[in-house]
Design a protein that fits this description.
5-stranded antiparallel β-sheet; about 20% helix; alpha+beta; Alpha-Beta Plaits; about 100 residues
Length: about 100
């Protein structure tokens, strides 16, 4: 799968998916595929995204989206456009490199 894999965790509520997809669109992200699940009132969704031209997503856009979503965790799980499969968590200010 090309693009960036984002994992979202949040308290489930009416309109959550609509809000998230609107925010992605407003930030010029194109959802290529999604896995949506809810268990015990908690949503755990995975989105595979690119920018609207199909190019890799800039991490600045992910940071912007994080600021726009309340009580929600958004993590980059995989980014196929990075040669070393770097996965960044700006919430904690840590850069993880997966060499597998």
């Amino acid at each position: 799968m090309q693009g960036m894999e984002l994992e979202l965790s949040a308290r489930d509520h009416v309109g959550l998916l609509s809000d998230i997809t609107r925010i992605f669109l407003e930030n010029s992200l194109c959802i290529k595929r999604a896995k949506i699940s809810t268990e015990n009132g908690k949503a755990k969704d995975t989105f595979y995204v690119t920018n609207v031209t199909g190019s890799p997503v800039d991490f600045k856009i992910i940071d912007s989206i994080r600021r726009q979503i309340d009580d929600t965790t958004l993590q980059v799980k995989h980014n196929s456009s990075l040669s070393q499969k770097a996965i960044r968590s700006t919430t904690m200010g840590i850069l993880f490199i997966i060499l597998s």
